[in-house]
Amino acid sequence: MDANLRVILQQLESEKSIDRATLLEAIRSAIETAARKGFAHAANVAVEIDPDTLAFKVFEIREVVEQVTDEMAQISLEAALELNPDVVVGNRLKVPTEPKDFGRIAAQTAKQVIIQKIKDAERENVFEEFKQRRGELVTGSVKRISHGNIFVTIGKAEAVLPYREQSPRENFKPGDRIRAYVLEVEKGPRGAQVVLSRTTTELVRALFELEVPEIYDGTIEIKAIAREPGNRTKVAVLSKDANVDAVGACVGMKGSRVRAVVEDLSGEKIDIVRWSDDALELCTNALNPADILDMTMDEASHSILVVVPHDQLSLAIGKRGQNARLASRLTGWNIDIRSDQELTGGVVEATGEDSASGVASQEPVAQDTEVEAPEEPSREAIP
Predict the structure, then answer these.
(1) Which residues 6+ apart lie within 8 Å of 78 measured at CB?
(2) Tens of pLDDT along 286-300?
(3) Which one, of 232, 315, 312, lies nearest residue 267 by Cα?
(4) Residue that finishes a domain, picked among 52, 87, 120
């Protein structure tokens, strides 16, 4: 075998990250395909390659019979015994042979087979790599945008960020750096199908793990996340160390940590609240900074009635009901917000529907702590 082939194999191993056994199988399969084209008849051909010397042998597979009726597919017992003294009638025997002419067409076929095998091996490697990275945060660059879908280059792989998984606030263009969450990894006809997401709540969790060492090492736990992509997110955190303030650690010095997450989410507002196993206390934290006069829990309907001052109603409800809706998702309870004045239409049920009375906007503040929050635009006036 040409010594150059060994050099080529070594280069492919290092550049394509394909193991030697896979490359040898690609060559064996290619030679086998080419050898078949070297026979005038349809032969059952097998090829063996010495992994050390790279020398190959071509065999025809023939059936051992007493009387040969098909010279192309059979071999007499007498001739077979000369090759292998242990054969009996009915066995299939590998008979050494050599194609008359590999020829240009056979060589071209061998080349195509090798190229295809290498591509298949590369795709399999990509699939195995990303299958293990499912549920992780990855960074890549935007390659192209087609029909609303964003195709992202991550190393040697290409992933897709579907339109449904894009935040309405964001607008990427080719060449932009993008960070996303690996949502799905499936094996398709063209290799690994890697689906990314910028709307899942797990993206927020992964970003906080990246920015807050206490979350990464388990000192602080993110207990719940409620998110409306592109608009607002509420994150409930719990500290497992009495000496560590969960909210303050997530906010960071002068809001540096939470600001980094906000910037990665293109300005999406983030509220960090302290987790509590007490549903009423958690509800209070989630609706902060609105003043709460009274709270009543109804376990039968799994709801909490919240009474606030009339001038705080819009603040508690939030813009288009967003604050109440996110608080409901964060706590897992249906939240009814009512003003202390008996006014018709003064009740809002935060069950996830986009209905609310009153408009207010609340900035991303660190709740239940005196740590300074990241700088944000001023709060809208409360009617």
Answers:
(1) none
(2) 998 888 988 999 999
(3) 232
(4) 120
